[in-house]
Amino acid sequence: MTISQLDAEARRxxxxxxxxxxxVVGRHLxxxxxxxxxxxELAYRHAAYARRKASRVGAVREAAGVAxxxxxxxxxxxxxxxxxxxxxxxxxxLAVMADCERGLGRPERALEIARSPEAEHLEAEDRVELxxxxxxxxxxxxxxxxALVELQIPELKERRARPxxxxxxxxxxxxxxELGRDKEAREYFARASAVDQEESTDADERLAALEGxxxxxxxxxxxxxxxxxxxxxxEIGPEAEAEAAPSEKGADPDGGGRxxxxxxxxxxxxxxxxxxS
Length: 277
Prior knowledge:
- The chain is mainly α.
- Helix content is 57%, strand content 5%.
- The chain is elongated.
């Protein structure tokens, strides 16, 4: 684990520090990035240490802000990301800043960030994430129709399998369902499932619920089956099922059973989404 594992821009910024200090801070930034998903609290401690040692480095303040956001320290995250923005001139964390405002109970300020001139020049992924946050802010204000409008952007017609596209489809479907437009919600949950290769949403489960089926894991596969379907034991009880079992004379010599007739294998998968939308 060395500073060389950081991206080039972060290494350049750390070059303003004495070499030994830069190496120490760099290693903590590497660990913070590596642990962000699996152990956010430990990642936060690594980032906080780096911040104490090099608070005037933009890359350090960015890392500290993202780590604080991940553990729900909204005000600290907002402060660090604002500082990083002043130091670097980068706007790629506007969505995180806006979501911090939501976390602090200030959805109007989140919408101000989303409408800022800087938001118009973001890369596609950052722009989509900011629209998702803006939609969440509208929902915070009880404006579900406006929340849907916030998401009606060109990327809603995207077909490439990218995580931010899957999230856009998913949130759009979620708002549609909130508005009672279940048919359209099914369409967009299906689209989210189709492009969600990283399984960043639970689109499969939401779609299954709308279709009235349930997903059952079987080994490495997934079976969708009727949610209302009852087993023999459910219908007549375990004792009666035992009596209904074939006698030894008429039993299958291989001990095999009859497969479920109504199940169909889809091979889908799911992971829960972690967002504030």
